[in-house]
Amino acid sequence: MAKPPVSPLARPLPDLPAIAGLRLATTAAGIRYQGRTDMLLAELAAGSTVAGVFTRNLCPGAPVSWDREILPAGRARGLVVNAGNANVFTGLAGLSAVEETARAAAALLGGSPREIFLASTGVIGEVLPVHKLVAALPGLQAGLREDGFAGAAHAIMTTDTFPKGATRTARLGGRTVRINGIAKGSGMVAPDMATMLCFLFTDAALPAAILQPMLSAGVEASFNRITIDSDTSTSDTVLLFATGAAGNDAGADTGEFRRALHEVLLDLALLVVRDGEGAQKFITITVEGAVSDASAKRIGLAIANSPLVKTAIAGEDANWGRIVMAVGKAGEPADRDRLSIAIGGVWMARQGGVAPGYDEAPVVAHMRGREIDIIVDLGLGEGRSRVWTCDLTHGYIDINGSYRS
Amino acid sequence: MAKPPVSPLARPLPDLPAIAGLRLATTAAGIRYQGRTDMLLAELAAGSTVAGVFTRNLCPGAPVSWDREILPAGRARGLVVNAGNANVFTGLAGLSAVEETARAAAALLGGSPREIFLASTGVIGEVLPVHKLVAALPGLQAGLREDGFAGAAHAIMTTDTFPKGATRTARLGGRTVRINGIAKGSGMVAPDMATMLCFLFTDAALPAAILQPMLSAGVEASFNRITIDSDTSTSDTVLLFATGAAGNDAGADTGEFRRALHEVLLDLALLVVRDGEGAQKFITITVEGAVSDASAKRIGLAIANSPLVKTAIAGEDANWGRIVMAVGKAGEPADRDRLSIAIGGVWMARQGGVAPGYDEAPVVAHMRGREIDIIVDLGLGEGRSRVWTCDLTHGYIDINGSYRS
Questions:
Q1: Do B321 and A401 touch (CB under 8 A)?
Q2: ipTM
């Protein structure tokens, strides 16, 4: 299969400055892809803390099981990531592969194997060639450098058409700290959790017990509100590492740091939507007037996951009847005769019927653009939520009908 | 848009003999389509009984609201169906359109307007041109005939590529009775309920109170186990009319009739899958070893609704890793290490890993065929269910990206 073109919705990778206490290296380990990097090693300063959020899929990959097991200690010395093979549904071989990789990395980086986090993404059900990973580790260690983010964002890609990164700074405990994030993901992306892999690094000094609830809340407001195709990966992993090198006062007000973290997460989540397999349009769906925020979110996701809504948008058809259908199938409180729908800021349907004097022309123009805005007002209460998705096009079929070939 | 070709999975329309007590007529009322019939009138003998099952979508069309309101009386004299406009989300205009149509039909056929059932299918959110329906009714009445099933099956089609019908006979109360059914549907098809419109007619004499539970159970075992695209129509309607002309003893054992009814329903449901928009392959998914039948059904539907599973099958790729993913996202009890998967009768994955000695060749050959069989054994209990779907292809995008244009 020819390599798909870069998404028309792509955004350039921002400059991601070095994070004190962190070094990165990538290599072409030849796990599946030829002629590109496919493996990432991150070295974290002794004393680094970690938080994580993982897929809710009940058939997770071996690396997810490993990370879940070691996360409660809250300490990290390294991260090893490979693309091309997800090490999912590989039985005992998968389990021994993660243990072997963690042992080999710990021997090089110091610390315990149980401080080495792992992530794999790619094909499911094929045994991971762990000897290739282990053989590549010494070379990776030798190549560790402080400014390796652009390379790292590339090395973790699978069907992604562009690398994804985001960065923010925040004042924390008398110092300015930085948060960098990279992510990969463009299919099998749906709550709960969206992108397969997302790694965040900060020089802040914060204990795992403070990082974890902050990360969980941030993921709920970002990756859990995007969907490409309603499918949930077996490998979804978000990890936040804090090296502590900034030397800030740990007891300080964390409000600004929390906001910056949430912004990085939302940036990355929306980049994943912009790289949705075959995506030609970026769709923002705002649901208002629901009986609760949770109800609004579920209705938003029902619209975002509807193949009929997504194909209509691909066809630049302002087919709000399909939005009515999706609202009605969500299983949440809805009253046909109170429902209003706007596309591109124009109210097309008002309280159960076509809006009086509705003029289709501005909506038709909006549908031809790259960024589609839909507002649904249920007219029932104060519940509100926003979700993001992309359209469903021939490109999605092309990519997923021949992924393994 | 060019008319899509007839589905390669199509089956010929069987001969549907006349049902005593029923007459049918169709016409080209010009509601939306040009050059084809788009309206059906059915006249039922006085004393006919009726049962019905409707969409669970909370934004149903006006005809569904009407039918639900008049169904409890259990009596029917007529049925009026149009294709091309669904009369959904049309506010007060939609409500007055159904009342006007029912009144006009009752004036011609006799009986009360509340014995006239209605169904509309097609575009949502456009006002139904009720004057065209009312103007066409006298001509329809004049053309009523006893052998009109083939025409009826054609007149109710929208994006369907072939007409759908099924027939059975059964012994009931000393007589042989017949059940004929016709259906339409090829997209926006998902539980709960699948096809938009399905009409069944029998000459049996059975009260509505006996018909209704029989029909509900039959729909649960047929239309509620198929899915094309996970979308649920606002117009789904199944109606069963019994003219009583066979003169059977009503107190008789109904077992054989019930079985025949269920067979007609399942025939029609599977024909809808065979006409799934863009379908190239017919997929049967059997889930075994679940903790309950209901759990097995939900897991089966998670597989059947997964765009990644459906595109893999379109690409003739036996990508069982995506089946693992879909099992894990269903939210039902599952244990990765007990899971086994067979495609085309070949066990590819056994208890959490690749099956020992697995040979891909027969599976590759199976994937090239039109009929794909998937078995998932969860290894947990005795729960079992079967669901049906089709693949997700470029044809689906073609049809739904330009349906209104």
A1: no
A2: 0.76
